[in-house]
Design goal:
heterodimer; A: alpha+beta; Rossmann fold; OB fold (Dihydrolipoamide Acetyltransferase, E2P); 2 domains; 6-stranded mixed β-sheet; 5-stranded antiparallel β-sheet; 19 strands; 31% strand; elongated; B: mainly alpha; MetI-like fold; 69% helix; globular; transport (chain A); nucleotide-binding (chain A)
Chain lengths: 351, 286
């Protein structure tokens, strides 16, 4: 059980700064997911918490204690790696017991703890096997087991599910969430998959180019993206963005309260609206028009792709059974005014 | 790593199968024939060898010749020379493996000033065979008083750029996460080396051991220089020492028996390590 505090942490590799000062406060028992595209520095941040990378400046605290200079083994953490990193020559039992063995735990206690973890992870029948005799999902469980038996203060996950197939990923995702809830161990989880982030996180950190763009509960981040990047990264299909040339041109008609905000802003403004908030009618206050290009029926829902006169793409999410116009026809879309987000020229939200 | 197939990759039938076997058998006969002749010569008496035609089937002097070779030999008992060779070959093989695996570990897993410089220095010595540096090496060994000693036979040959290079290449294929997982698990570097890296390298160690043992066993020039006392001679150079100088008569049966005896240990090592080597191959995974 522990809190983690990441205080203005920066990381430089040689001359290049890859993390430009990140602050995160993690409460005891909280499940935090760091999400972002590849190369955004999320894994580096995790590895700094783990002690596998040095911290260039700033401070990492675990349970109120500065750990910048501590070795990983002295930080009371356990880590699950993307490729599992199981010791190939050791049995499942030995893999899970290795950390305890080094710590000098009594044999009887090691056996007890490993058995308990194996039971929890349904690995009881596999304890004598070598990692190569296990499936991907089982290896993943062993990696989890290795973390659990040590009863760490903090769990660190580095994209633990990316090597699994889609179905297994969904299953393991639920298992990880349930396990973390049962154990109540503070967890930091890195992923590039926004679905994982949405489903697992108590709070998520959206990172982009070495900066934590937004920190918050998944639904808050989804509904209230603070930057254009967050709007575009979280949600599938992503938020639609339309460059605004004038407050109202032919392809876009915005209600007066929004037009006022646009006028007050400096520089060009981008309008953002989520696909599910648009409908192919003129009932909402904010209206857009475009030519229908193609339709993707997904069963429960249908994605309608349109293009505006200015050449910008718009996606509208419709019910699966809705009647749709022909491809190539001009359509009107609209959305309620409260669903419209405005972003300034630096990508930050305009309220 | 690939598993060895139980049988051939594609099952062959008919004439092709017989032809390949015939070719292989012919090849084996050609290679084995001189060894067979040596064996035959080691089982007959001296007059039988010198009188043409050469005998092609073993005679009845087997025990006489071999016991004479083992116990008394010509300059020194062969048993003694076999022992010397074994000490030298094991010393070189084990020493080389220990030193090179440790230096490869240092070069791959630690960041220290001059890391690359050291690696390239080691790598450069690859290009210098024993013969090139034999005079200065002799000088050094002699000044250390290592003439006619096991340390003189072993230590000057113990550094191995090849083995270091091989272990380095192997360590670089071990995923970094393994080292990191061990760090998180609390393993200090040497613990990681013992518990994880060493067991994972056992295939490479077995393969290298075979190669290095034979390298050590077959050393000729260096033992010839460093040992003058017949009781410190190794078997490979000892055979040459058995050849008579001047008008003496060569005791060919004993020399041949010695040759056969000199051949046996490498064969035993290859065959016994081959099993381990293949099992290592099948068991190993990354």
């Amino acid at each position: 059980m522990a809190t983690i505090r990441i205080d203005n942490v920066k990381k430089r590799f040689g001359q290049t700064e890859v993390i430009h000062g990140v602050d995160i406060d993690i409460n005891d028992g909280e499940f935090i997911v760091i999400v972002g595209p590849s190369g955004c520095g999320k894994s580096t941040l995790l590895r700094m918490v783990a002690g596998l990378e040095t911290v260039t400046s700033g401070e990492v605290q675990i349970h109120g204690k500065r750990v910048n200079e501590l070795e990983p083994m002295d930080r009371n953490i356990a880590m699950v790696f993307q490729n599992y990193a199981l010791y190939p020559h050791m049995s499942v039992f030995d893999n899970m017991a290795y950390g305890l063995k080094i710590a000098g735990t009594a044999k009887a206690e090691i056996a007890e703890r490993v058995d308990k973890a194996a039971q929890m992870l349904q690995l009881g029948d596999y304890l004598d096997r070598k990692p190569r005799q296990l499936s991907g999902g089982q290896r993943q469980r062993v990696a989890m087991g290795r973390a659990i038996v040590r009863k760490p203060a903090v769990f660190l996950f580095d994209e633990p599910l990316s090597n699994l197939d889609a179905k297994l990923r969904v299953q393991m995702r639920l298992e990880i969430k349930a396990l973390q809830r049962d154990l109540g161990i503070t967890s930091l989880y890195v992923t590039h998959d926004q679905v994982e982030a949405m489903t697992l996180a108590d709070r998520m950190v959206v990172m982009n180019a070495g900066v934590a763009e937004q920190i918050g509960a998944p639904m808050d981040v989804y509904q209230d993206p603070r930057t254009m990047f967050v709007g575009g990264f979280i949600g599938s299909p992503p938020m639609n963005f339309l460059q605004l040339r004038q407050a109202s041109d032919d392809s876009m008609r915005l209600p007066p309260q929004i037009a006022d905000r646009i006028e007050k802003a400096e520089g060009p403004v981008t309008v953002g609206v989520r696909p599910e908030h648009l409908s192919l009618d003129a009932n909402g206050e904010a209206r857009f028009s475009g030519r229908l290009r193609y339709v993707e029926p997904l069963g429960a829902e249908t994605l309608v792709h349109l293009v505006t006169e200015g050449g910008e793409q718009i996606t509208v999410r419709q019910d699966g059974i809705a009647q749709l116009p022909e491809a190539g026809s001009q359509c009107v879309m609209s959305s309620a005014a409260e669903h419209i987000c405005l972003f300034g020229k630096d990508g930050a939200r305009i309220d | 790593m690939a598993r060895l197939p139980e049988s051939g990759m594609v099952e062959k039938r008919g004439a092709g199968l017989w032809l390949t076997h015939l070719g292989l058998i012919a090849g084996v006969l050609v290679i084995v024939f001189p060894i067979w002749l040596a064996f035959v010569a080691s089982t007959v008496s001296q007059p039988e060898i010198v009188r043409p035609p050469m005998p092609l089937w073993p005679g009845d002097q087997f025990f006489e010749n071999y016991s004479k070779a083992l116990v008394s030999g010509i300059n020194a008992p062969v048993a003694r020379m076999l022992f010397n060779s074994a000490v030298m070959a094991f010393g070189i093989a084990i020493g080389k493996i220990v030193i090179s695996i440790l230096s490869a570990f240092a070069i791959v897993y630690f960041r220290f000033p001059g890391r690359n410089l050291f690696f390239w220095l080691i790598f450069l010595t690859l290009m210098l065979p024993v013969e090139v540096r034999i005079v200065p090496t002799y000088e050094v060994a002699a000044n250390f008083g290592m003439l006619n000693s096991y340390s003189g036979l072993i230590f000057p040959l113990i550094a191995s750029a090849t083995a270091t290079f091989l272990f380095r290449q192997f360590f670089m294929t071990v995923p970094d996460e393994l080292a990191e997982a061990a760090r998180v698990d609390g393993a200090r570097p040497m613990r990681f080396f013992w518990d994880i890296l060493l067991p994972m390298s056992r295939t490479n160690i077995a393969a290298l051991f075979v190669i290095l043992f034979i390298y050590g066993w077959n050393q000729y020039l260096w033992p010839l220089l460093i040992t003058t006392d017949p009781s410190m001679n190794t078997i490979v150079m000892g055979i040459k020492q058995m050849f008579p100088s001047g008008d003496d008569i060569a005791d060919w049966p004993v020399i041949m028996a010695t040759s056969i005896l000199a051949m046996l240990p490498p064969v035993v090592v290859v065959i016994s390590m081959q099993k381990l080597f293949i099992r290592g191959l099948v068991d190993s995974e990354k």
